[in-house]
């Protein structure tokens, strides 16, 4: 993960030293000057850094018209992840299977197959099943939550707080699973301002924002918060990237193997220990 601040060449003197120190000490963020009067060149400058930090998976995070002479600074966060499976899928076992988009429509999608002991749980309160696929670094894991019903995704997403993924506890929940999992690749661009406002973060986007500890400039506010994300899951493992810019068990006979066919919209999380690095849902594995 990397952070960077781009400061306007004409307003850099107004940015408080204490703010610079905090972002440097606590967020390991470096700073760089940019001429925001030239929106095209400064956007290229920022986007080049983002591409370098995300192995060229995130492109064009900032548009040239996002920047102008009134821009004081751009705060950028970039996160890149590439993980190899602990148990790789055999590409020869990948076959086309039906994936249900909803109760009335479906597509044929490349479905990977593996039979191994995985972390497995039934989630009766969500009418769903959960399986955890470890990466070669076993502190990392892809968690897939599959509803019992084809149209059960909305119920899961409305109750995400009930998905308590405790990796240490789940180590006692290993079960042999015959897993069919679709390959998928997702790219998204999201304007985060409406979501931040829903969470109560409203004033910072207005002229009444109190941002004097960042820079003592009248009318300073956050004008844009945008995030782009990329994730690809295949037989070898997972590659994922995200960038955000703010302008502004008892010993007994083992149970039989569980067959888990992920053939309907599902939720996924990439976990590091008990922390979520990436999360999202797959509605159609054939669409980016």
Automatic annotation (TrEMBL):
<dbReference type="InterPro" id="IPR000215">
    <property type="entry name" value="Serpin_fam"/>
</dbReference>
<keyword id="KW-0646">Protease inhibitor</keyword>
<comment type="similarity">
    <text>Belongs to the serpin family.</text>
</comment>
<dbReference type="GO" id="GO:0004867">
    <property type="term" value="F:serine-type endopeptidase inhibitor activity"/>
</dbReference>
<dbReference type="InterPro" id="IPR042178">
    <property type="entry name" value="Serpin_sf_1"/>
</dbReference>
<dbReference type="InterPro" id="IPR036186">
    <property type="entry name" value="Serpin_sf"/>
</dbReference>
<dbReference type="InterPro" id="IPR023796">
    <property type="entry name" value="Serpin_dom"/>
</dbReference>
<protein>
    <recommendedName>
        <fullName>Serpin domain-containing protein</fullName>
    </recommendedName>
</protein>
<feature type="domain" description="Serpin">
    <location>
        <begin position="1"/>
        <end position="285"/>
    </location>
</feature>
<keyword id="KW-0722">Serine protease inhibitor</keyword>
<dbReference type="GO" id="GO:0005615">
    <property type="term" value="C:extracellular space"/>
</dbReference>
<dbReference type="InterPro" id="IPR042185">
    <property type="entry name" value="Serpin_sf_2"/>
</dbReference>
<dbReference type="InterPro" id="IPR023795">
    <property type="entry name" value="Serpin_CS"/>
</dbReference>
<dbReference type="Pfam" id="PF00079">
    <property type="entry name" value="Serpin"/>
</dbReference>
């Amino acid at each position: 993960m990397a952070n960077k601040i781009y400061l306007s060449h004409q307003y850099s003197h107004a940015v408080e030293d204490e703010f610079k120190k905090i972002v440097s000490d606590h967020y390991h963020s470096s700073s760089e000057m940019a001429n925001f009067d030239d929106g095209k060149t400064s956007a290229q400058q920022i986007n080049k850094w983002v591409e370098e930090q995300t192995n060229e998976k995130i492109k064009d995070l900032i548009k040239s018209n996002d920047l102008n002479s009134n821009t004081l600074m751009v705060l950028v966060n970039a996160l890149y992840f590439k993980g190899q499976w602990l148990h790789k899928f055999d590409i020869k076992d990948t076959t086309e299977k039906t994936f249900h988009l909803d109760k009335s429509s479906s597509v044929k999608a490349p479905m990977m197959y593996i039979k191994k002991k995985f972390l497995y749980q039934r989630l009766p309160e969500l009418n769903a099943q959960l399986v955890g696929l470890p990466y070669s670094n076993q502190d990392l894991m892809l968690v897939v939550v599959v509803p019992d019903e084809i149209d059960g995704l909305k119920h899961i997403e409305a109750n995400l707080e009930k998905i308590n993924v405790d990796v240490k506890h789940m180590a006692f929940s290993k079960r042999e699973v015959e897993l069919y999992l679709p390959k998928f690749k997702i790219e998204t661009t999201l304007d985060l301002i409406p979501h931040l406002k829903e969470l109560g973060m409203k004033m910072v986007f207005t002229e009444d924002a109190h941002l004097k500890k960042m820079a003592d400039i009248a009318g300073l506010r956050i004008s844009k918060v945008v995030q782009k994300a990329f994730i690809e899951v295949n037989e070898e493992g997972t590659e994922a990237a995200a960038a955000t810019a703010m302008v502004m068990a008892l010993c007994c006979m083992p149970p039989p193997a569980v067959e888990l066919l992920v053939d309907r919209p599902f939720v996924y999380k990439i976990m590091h220990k008990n922390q979520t690095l990436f999360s999202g849902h797959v509605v159609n594995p054939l669409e980016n």
